[in-house]
Amino acid sequence: MSISAVMVKDLRTQSGAGIMECKDALKESNGDLDAALELLRKKGTVKAAKKADRSTKEGAIGGLVEGGKAAIIEIKCETDFVARNDKFQELCGNLASHVLKTGAVDTADELLGQPLVNDASKTVKDLMTEKIHELGENLVLGRTAMYELDGAGGFGLYIHGAGSIGVLVEVTCSDEKAAEKERFTDVCRDLAMHIAAAAPIAVTQADVPADTVAKEKEIFTAQAKESGKPDKIIPKIIEGRVKKYFTEIVLLEQAFVKDPDLSISEFLADASRNLGADISVKRFTRLQLGE
């Protein structure tokens, strides 16, 4: 298969590897970009690639917290100019409000077919069509999430800048009065901001998909063999690398962005002592344009 300069450039952008290394990996993988990237990782040429590093699409993420409910939504557009337009930002807010009131959906098509909460004569698709004509660009609904409290607790919502990253995190609290304190609100916001910056993929180790861990172990094993490590010590090396991997992707094990001397688990323990109530993270959604 012929390997084009564009293919090599794309792989270099994602991997940071050299031109010849990328070209050889693409040849070996028969032009499959994802397979070539994994091959480079196995050879130790590149670290784990994050989808966030490859974000290129324009748009914005909007969110809303109201009472015991919260919602977050992604809307894509063609240019940064439109993404920063007040009318586009208003659309994000209005549709976040719609999702909060109607509940989460499995697909964008399902959301598009819903009547608008504030005008049942129109559907969400009708509103999107109007805005496409008004703004002069194609607009596409992305991902959504809606949370509803089933006990004492609260939400942390953080939208970065004009909406390139958005985080919604649900935090539980064992005491209703403690959940109403300003300190608890601060904890929720700190967690949302941390998730935006650190990009965890799960709350606990148990939440990390087994196939994800298996894939990383396979890559770590290949890297160890590539570096010439004796087979008898490879299991110990893999154990250490998996442990480090969890500190990078598991929320409770990550170093707190605002105080790297604390893990998020330790931060929550301190906050629980200060509030006199048990605080824990139930779930979170992190959206980044281009993922």
From TrEMBL:
Annotated source species: hydrothermal vent metagenome
One cellular component term from this protein's GO annotations in UniProt: cytoplasm
Entry keyword annotation includes Nucleotide-binding: no
Assigned protein family: Belongs to the EF-Ts family.
Name of the protein in question: Translation elongation factor Ts
UniProtKB keywords: Elongation factor, Protein biosynthesis
GO molecular function: translation elongation factor activity
Chain ranges of the Translation elongation factor EFTs/EF1B dimerisation domain: 70-291
PROSITE patterns: EF_TS_2
InterPro entries: EF-Ts_dimer_sf (IPR036402), Transl_elong_EFTs/EF1B (IPR001816), Transl_elong_EFTs/EF1B_dimer (IPR014039), Transl_elong_Ts_CS (IPR018101), UBA-like_sf (IPR009060)
